[in-house]
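Schema walk-through. Below, the input block comes first and the output block second. Nothing else is stored per chain. Lengths vary across the set, and this one has 310 residues.
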Amino acid sequence: METIHTIEKRNTEKKTAVAVGYFDGMHIGHRELMRQMLECAEKRNLLPTILTFDMRSLRATGKGKHDLFPREHTLRLAEQMGVQLYAELSFEDIRNMEPDQFASRVLSGQFLNADVVFCGTDFRYGKDRAGSVENLLEEGRKNNFEVCPVESVTLDGEVVSTTRIKDYIRRGEIGKANGMLGAPYSLSGEVIHGNHLAHGLGFPTANLLFPKDILAPPKGVYLAEVLVGDKKYRGITNIGTRPTITEDVDSTAETHILDFDEDIYGKRITLLFYDFIRPEQRFQSKEELVKVVQSNIEQARNTDFSRFAI
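--- output ---
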């Protein structure tokens, strides 16, 4: 998959089918839009393309919001789905474009050379979000590309959206978030050293840092699966500041992996979150803490994970 990050002249001999939007999470609504774009690209012999936006400059001003997943997550899923061109433009490069400029300079011409553009029915673009789908339909007629608005997907009577998924995660309703994502909410990263206190209590943990620009669930303990290489294990993950043991306020995801005893410091693992077990709490003693953690481990061991099938 080719990736580009600046508006530049390209070899545009082959026209594109473009899915445009901010695909944070690549939820089931995004995937339906992708499905239609990819199907069209195959039928018309077009280059399947994503056009999305890098919002890091906006976050640097304090105005940007947390994402569900790192950008690499979207890249990986896009490539797996069959996207061949991934154009991610800096928000700074397009924020002051008028809607007609966005259509003529970005979507058509010597950059993407779109034959057809797929977007959500609520898509906004251009300076001050002035462009609507209706504007884009008109610009398409002017610039010789078709526009295909894709209706929102609903699940259990609710419109699927990144905003709604974030609301579920903020409330610890991981199952509902997973349903809309079409996959488990997850966190990937390199295992780091902690203070090794959990190991001393008999519960060694694999610790991941939670990136500051990624939305974290509420502090507490979660039922999880852990991907280590090509193997999957059950686990319990604590997100929080470990108030019983230390006043250290650095948030981490600390996972006790069941039936696992390998040195994985410095290795990359992935946590798959399935259910909220209990909130973070302060215990009166380490003995009380050990008793509760043992109970959480047994819960993970005895849970039928097939009930979380998405």
